[in-house]
Amino acid sequence: MRIFTASLATETNTFSPVPTDRASFEMAFYAAPGRHPETPTLCSSPMLVLRRRARLDPSLDVVEGTATWAEPGGLVNRATYEGLREEILDQLRAAMPVDGVVLGLHGAMVAQGYDDCEGDLLARLRDLVGEGVLIAAELDPHSHLTQKRVEAANILAAFLEFPHTDFYERGEHVVDLAIRALKGEIRPVISTYDCRMVDIYPTSREPMRGFVDRLKRLHGQGPILSASLIHGFMAADVPEMGTRVLVVTDGDAAAGAALAEKLGREVIALRGSTGMPMLGTAAGIDRAIEIASAGARPVVVADVWDNPGGGTAGDGTLILREILTREPLKVGVATIWDPMAVTFARGAGEGAVIMLRFGGKSCAPAGEPIDALVEVVKVVEEGWQSFGASRVTLG
Hints:
By secondary structure, the chain is α/β, with parallel strands linked by helices. It folds into two domains: 2-269, Rossmann fold (3-Layer(aba) Sandwich); 281-385, no CATH class. 33% of the residues lie in helices and 19% in strands. A six-stranded mixed β-sheet has the order 2-3-1-4-5-6, sandwiched between helices. Strand 12 (384-387) and strand 13 (390-393) form a beta hairpin.
């Protein structure tokens, strides 16, 4: 059994002014074939699962392609996407013939000229390998479940948890289904249901906690092989953005469609009740001060839009500017992305006191820059997010 595996992932906020180019991928995480560390990143679990299975099963021949991830940002440069796509396709050509292709994707990549990068990649993979080769992929739930992807793949499944604590387990789930299908034990069929809505679905709290637990219990019941909720990524202005239910059955499309619709209607009935309450800037600061005054500390005030994890620049100043209008408060602000300000602070050195303009440079909605007399307390050369031995560089 010969399986080709690769990973190409980022999350594209089409409203963000921050471009995503080849350097964005190489700086965040890029592993050439066979060079991926022994621990996965968010979207490369299938590769590591397959590598470990191959060590235990001599009949499993795994060919690793490129694995790369860029931090969420704005539109991917067209040449960058096409270059990485062709890199993976060329690696697959060199590996053929194969019995299956298993990918780690995010599912919300948008490039210049491509509303559906993953659909484009999967369709080209299908054209290359033909109908007789199995194609499976793991997705982030904040993705776009397009018809093009459904038509090109045999197996699709997403993380179930948000926050995404189960990305490795769901990678194992996708690999399990792929190997069972290649052994002839199952005949996977994908069914979907479009909820025609978008919302926020944190799974650590009700009502989504109970919904996800029920999804897990559905696996293995009758013909049901897998069930996922695609939350959608609302910061992408693409035609097929939105909440969808994804079901994979063992050869029973009717059962899959019926279950997908049933689950989808349950999600629709929850509309407006799944997300956390949100306050405006002034009201949020007022509430934080009230909580802190009662002795509950620390209190975190989060700008839910200016979130680098969702592709924005992360240089918003609106909350800080509101804080500065109040009585002196003991407040830590993390983080404001400003390469120019960092350059100035680094040049001045630790302990220096300088006038600094920072924040508010990426776009007008980020707010105006802050001008202040600041002390450079610490200079750190590099930051990263750790996935075991795999590091995603943050700058």
